[in-house]
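From the shared-data thread, chain only:
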Amino acid sequence: MEETQQTASQATTIETILAQRKEKADKMRSIGVDPYPARVKIDNKIAQVRTKFEYLQKEEAASDQITIAGRMMSRRDMGKASFIDIEDGTGRIQVYVRSDQVGADSFKIFKEMSDLSDFVCVTGSLFRTRTGELSVKADKFAIICKAFRPLPEKWHGLKDTETRYRQRYLDLIANIDVKEVFKKRSMIISAIRSKLEELGFIEVETPILQSLAGGANARPFTTHHNALGIDLFMRIAPELFLKRLVVGGMERVFEIGRNFRNEGIDRNHNPEFTMMELYQAYADYNDMMDLTELLIKTAAEKIGSPVNLNFRRAKLFDLIKEYTGLELLPYLETGKLFDRVKHLNLDLPKDASDQKILDQVFDEKVVSHLQEPTFVMDYPAIYSPLTKIKFDQPEIAERFELYINGMEICNAYSELNDPHMQKIRFQQQVEAKKKGDDEAQPYDEDFINALEQGLPPTGGLGIGIDRLVMILTQVESIREVIFFPAMKPIAEE
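Structure, as tokens:
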């Protein structure tokens, strides 16, 4: 009951504040002042001002006039003078507003009609206070956007994760560290893009709406195109289209974009996520490991990440043997794998497929040990339908996944370019789907046609950008690096 009353009281308070602030906006209009001007001309960002006037000593003033704008974050009134803090996208600075300096009319608007969270524009000169605070002495002051809602409670900050993710704009206003993570995300993507372009890769775009959901084993989202009268899928991966481009002679291509997978949501998964995927002709999975190291180290250097990036390489079945004592490769697809691992007390149904059993063994017994960057190499060929097999070991695919801090960051292969073998792999996937595997890939006839045209030896690599940002910025949830993560709708009362 007490909580309900508190919530109702908060709602009443907000409604009162909204009404009061709307009344102030109306009052500004009534005296001929636009509370929402279309354009404001500024000549400096706050970070530039701080750098330019850093030389000022205590109680020293500069004669230069500057014009800045930002959100009013705090306010300390002292009769006919006030100190406020304003913040733009680059930083925060103190502003000194005096009645005799800005004029009685402007000061009256400031005192009576401005509130925290309003955007304001200030023209003035810089000085440093007795306490050493770099400040702007305002000669002109104007409200340029009247905010109706107050700032988040600053006493304890905005900490509730549900609110932070649902109302990211409040999170960005209240928590400077959050803004820094997203700035670093942008820098990471920029660093990867620049390095690939330097290496001769061409950035391309492939369809997001696809008639077949191929390129990965995942459950797709389905939509409908009214004009064509057909169902389409949101892409789960751009792989098959990118490889078509290599067939066409574009020997180094990459794409950074959204993929969509109809899967669960947890600290490592969001149904829409950003992937960097690339293909390089005349390369294999060893080259992709070298390239992965280069790209991640380049991104880490760009943001000054302290993360340990000493990479190692280890084979999948060697790691399983190291942490379980079991040699499992000979038991795949023999009907004996479940009995071989049942003493490990895995959370598995008795009718689980061998692929699910192997995945569970790896996830439960190995992954937690992979804290340092580890290329896990050489997966079973039967579970890697788009991957080239080892010529002298046909049961093994030339594939790796990179794990850092116990989390998969990327997946890569030497690409299967034998059209006959790819047909067989697709047919196996079709049979698996008939048996109930709703993540199995469809048969893509046009992709077979492309392979029959000739795909040179090719290495492919996909890096999960969101997870890489998590690692390099040292945050614990994928929701911390996606501006607007998927959220369960708030239940209606």
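Residues 1-8 have pLDDT under 50 and may be disordered.
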